[in-house]
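[Meeting: bench + compute handoff]

Bench side (C.D.) handed over the final construct sequence. Compute side (W.E.) agreed to return the predicted structure before the next meeting so the bench team could plan truncations. Sequence as handed over:
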Amino acid sequence: MRDKERNTKSNLDIVKECDNFPYYDPNDPKPFNDAISPLWLFFLPDDPNPHGYLLPSTVEKMPWTQNFLLLNTNPPQVHLIHPSLKATVVNRARAFESVIEELLKDARDKKLFANLKGWRNEKYPVLGANFPLAIERAGSNLFGIVTRGAHMTVYTRTAKGALKFWIPRRAASRSTFPGMLDNTVAGGVAYGEMPFECIVREAAEEASLPEDLVRRNTKSVGAITWFNIKDSKSGGEVGLLQPGIQYVYDLEIPEDVVPKPMDGESEDFRLLDVEEVRKAMGEEQFRPSCAMVIMDFMVRHAIVTAENEKDYVEICARLKRKLPFRTTPSGKYSRTG
């Protein structure tokens, strides 16, 4: 619902823009049931817990190999099955990883999915897997696994104490959310990478911020979670599912420190006050996940409070959504294979 006075989205709607997969409501279960019932669950070997959601259209187009078993059960399931390998967990895990990579490369070469045009040679971990497993970043959304990002809000205070945010605009050439506003520093956390090291790397690459400053003054302030149905602005197939974790960091810098674009992913950085940022969020100028991060900042810094926001409790709850899949291993997989 839009604010009638300003014709902008409400704070709750800003959060819903990213966390947009229906919640289960016992009084009105149809939206959730309609969204969940067609989805295929993705399973790993020797693990009863699913790790991702696939769309029926993805299952239909994917050039599956003998290393995958498709079951038309209720719900339908895709199982990665054992390759012909008797070895250690590490070697078996590498074999599974190769199986998935070969599948995605075949799909890429056949031009089956727009997502795979942006092949990055960068991998995301399958969180919660009982053995080390990673998937090419460009293909991770096809399997609907939980992905991780690390975002940092960089801000300063004027001589009068007013808080201002350093906000970049994404380059128009970006394949995802071109020209939209972003968090000061933001990046996907790759396989084997720790979230804070992602922040340090991206701070240098995206904002030209000195490593010593970032390591010394950055504060880890938690994590937010959501369940997103991707739209056309995100690039690639519309409707893909992304349960997400965003590790959140704050960095207050002096007025004479100015972030500057380095790697060409941003056009510029602008110093915006709280009202300018709120207006831009309400006008949907921000990438949805970045708007979530700033909303979290505003809640933590008492800019958005129970006294000035009627939807305060729901906003706080949706910033910490329970994810549909495990994010830590169950420990049931054999260490010896």
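W.E. noted at the follow-up: The first strand starts at residue 2 and ends at 3. C.D. will use this when planning the next construct.
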